Amino acid sequence: MKTATFKGYLLALVATIAFSNVYIFSKAALNEIHLTQFGIYWCGFGMLFSFLFALKNKKLGQLKVLDKRQRRILLLLGILEILTTTSFFISINIIPDPSVTSFIGNLFPVMVTLGGIVLLKEKFGWVEVVGASLALIGTFVISYTGGTSLKTLFIAGTGVVVINALFATTATLIVKVHVKNISPELFNLNRYTWLFAFSLIAFFIYSPEAAISSRAFANITIGSFLEFIAILTVYYSYQFIDASRSAVVQTLKGIFVLIGAYLVFHTFPLMHQFIGGMVTVVGVLIMTLAQAGIFKFKNNPSN
Fold this sequence. Notes:
Shape: globular
Number of strands: 0
Number of helices: 13
């Protein structure tokens, strides 16, 4: 494996571990405070971390040399990030067990892979089709409630996770295309600036109390810092490996979230949800290994 490729996978793994903890810390905070209270603190800290990091790495000067096309890209990404992040935390708030949210979220790497094929011309074979099919089957098993009507067919929050995956996929592919011309630091700062602005508006509309408990404050501070690290390392990974490969590595977060949720909240998915979650992990891992060239099949020479 080339050094650059190894670095890309390592960055994706760091992002996976960091983002796994985002599920835990955000859920812990949302169990105590209103979503609008959560948003203004979480995004405020994220914007502060991003600004300081961009300042330290002397990336703020790029703002002066952005052309109109790049500004439009940042504007589009800002809107997508608002939709993506809002739907993500709404799903965390709705679904009791964060590990279930994470397993359903494995739709994201499947969508990124399919988007990479169509838009970025990334390679895709029949083994990846098998992996993607397993991931989709696993997601259905996790979400299925046994109901017969559309309203009762899936658990509450499933639709929000699917919407989140769609928006996140779109944002990921845009970043992948432009990450060589716009620095990851600037992408991250742009993301949190838009999110904080949106959170500020929502805060004034709903007018909740500004004060929160020290425990919620601690969970938000740690969680937002981990999210800042996760998003930044994901952007960096796109400089070295395909977007689909980076996204697929992140599928392992489901296992980390499962362990963390059990230790912190003493929750565990229902057996069919656990089995479905493992199926999604296996399916996306098959996709990962296939795209990394592990599965290679040669035609037998004719006699």
